[in-house]
## 1
Amino acid sequence: MNIALAKIDLTDALAVWRRNLRVYLRLWKTELIAPIIEPIFTFFAFGFGVGALIGSEVENLSYLSFVGAGVLAFTVLMRTVFEMTYGAYFRMVYQSTYDAILATPVNAESLAFGEILWAVTKGAVDCIFILPLVVIFGSATSLFTPLSIVPLIFGCVYLGSLGLAITAHVHEIDYFNIFFALFFSTLFLCGAWFPVGNLPEWLQIVAYLIPTTSVIDLCRACLTGNFAARHVYEMFYLCVISILLLEWALRSIRKRMVV
């Protein structure tokens, strides 16, 4: 069987990653505005605004503690999705960056992997800046808080791969509206703002099939120290989904870029 992951040249992929890093270092001041400002307003809106209306514990946590994982995951994952949709589309279509890279010995799989690796790196950098805000607002109460970056990295791999695969199949930028409408709709089921257990049973099954639910649940466990047996299965599920979507992304970029 022809496996796209086996065609990755790590040296070439890192060269693509370094190219994106150099661009980021020129624009880092503007790049960091969103991941710092957005969580602050989200904490005020949900943690204090909605939290004041609820006025009770959610899953034995204050609502501010409960919602912290949602704020953290939502901000980090959204940045990854935008990087691998609109950002990747601009590099692929308008700037012809992908064409220029593929004119070198870099193959399509290494290009795609380098792009996803960069999206994951960007998500990890954003996480480093957002985590202190989570602590300051009182949503992180556990010594395991730094470990929340692990499920977020897997979330960035899975959503970065999904975003790049979708981008490879989009020929008009307006079609991203359909993807984001579906993406934002699923976010409301993932336990970011309320417990998944509050949903009807059949909808809970749907929610747990969405990998973002596992990312948020694992983040919440790290921030609060409330671990459960299901988190082992969620981590395994994230690993499998990430590998499958990564393979799809690599194949999709080769099909789009290599004639």
Note: Residues 4-257 form one domain.
## 2
Amino acid sequence: MSTGFENAQPPSPTTAAVRPAPRAGQRLTFVVVIPVYNHGDTVAQVVRAVLETLPEVCVLAVNDGSTDQTPRILTELAATSTDQASGGVGRLRVLRLPRNRGKGFALCTAFRAAAKMGFSHAVTIDADGQHVPTDLVRLMRLARLFPDDLIIGDRQMDFASVPASSRRGRDFSRYWLWLETGQDVPDSQCGLRVYPLRHTLRLRHWFQRFDFETETLARYAWAGRVIRSVPVTCVYFPPAQRISHFRPVLDTLRGVRLNVLLVILRLLLIPCRRCEPWFLPEGPRGGGRPAFWRWEFWRRALGRLTRANVSPALASTAVGVGILIAFLPVYGLQTLLAIYVARRLHLNIVLTVAAAQLSSPPLTPLLLLASVEIGHFILAGRWLTRLSWHRISWHLVFTDWLAPAVVGGLLSGVLAGAAGLLLTRWWLGRRRPRPASALLDSARRYALGPPGRLP
């Protein structure tokens, strides 16, 4: 299955691939965090498997106001799981929240507690039993190589037992996260993660439920850090045995709200909190100053602009955004606005600017006339009478028709942009079908090798 990100570009090697070895004396200590809410049927198996897989790691379970047998099970497990090498100190520690506050709040509580205990990294795993605890070793191994990066699992979903809704949710979140951060995260909803605590606790969060994890990825990327993915296994139980507290309607609306707000923050240039620099990347060697007067420089720059972010999903989005900008009543500034939006949302600049030229003469009066008519109908409930494009003048527009032009231009731009996006996506999908294996191979190369251009 192809999601349209096969040609997306990960962060540049200057900031992503070049990572020095950990400083001398720097010791990485891991704690496994398990948020638990009414997982009485699976939490015991998950905790025991984690303790057996990682015999030298402490486990921190957060009881998020469970109302079933979960508190009793966690108490019994904490009493029996002791480390003989440390004098009988329990390796399982339980944090109890008086009422359910959401997964994000539980994780934040555990992160603060783990930082006070002296741990440097928190490894998270869900308590529903869908993850394989042995995959934690792979994530921790990559975290030791890149101690300042956020490591996340990439669930392999090319199986018949995987629900279609899970695939769609993963692709939807992946698409929006690219627009917001420019980093390609194949599976931004996976619960297997490694959080560097000293960076994560510096971030500002607005949401504390399922949307907390997606917001963390966006803010982590905005803070100047890299998100790396590792292919992991995911077990999907039959619907009767599946434990999920995800509410399709409410939590989906929360996800839409989160992504809309993150895109707005990205477009408005609102400063975000950045992490403290841990290293200084090496500058280019022997490159000298670029030869701006040579045709070769401009040819390569134009080639990068035309080939960047041209996957079907991103190319169709660029066309839709360009058409939307063409309908906005900011005539004369559409090109500059298209360049700005394309840069902020990591879209192809050439496609966005080309689509925005729909407002160029001789189509400008027609677009303006359509915007005024639609806006007047929305505001006044009737169409304008005896109106033709011969009567249109800039003085008339900015004195009597400013409000109808703004409202109509925005509405017609949204409708036309959505139509252009869907038609372009359909056309590119017919011309360039890609196998599902391309996505899996690209994810593995991005996680385990130096970042480069994804195929």
Note: Confidence is low (pLDDT under 50) at residues 1-25, 84-88, 277-287, 434-455.
